[in-house]
Amino acid sequence: MAYWSFGERLSALDEATASPSGINYNLETLAALLAHRLDRTDLLAENRDAFVDAARRLGARRSEGVSAVFVSYAARDRPFAEELKNALLDRNITTTDDSDISSSEFFSEALNQAINRAQHLVLLIGARSGDSKHVDQVIRRFQRQSVDEETRTRLLLPVLLPGVSSLALPKSIINLQYMSLNELSLDDVADRLANIVAAEPPAVA
Question: Which of 107, 104, 99, 37 is closest to 71 using CA atoms?
Answer without folding.
Answer: 99
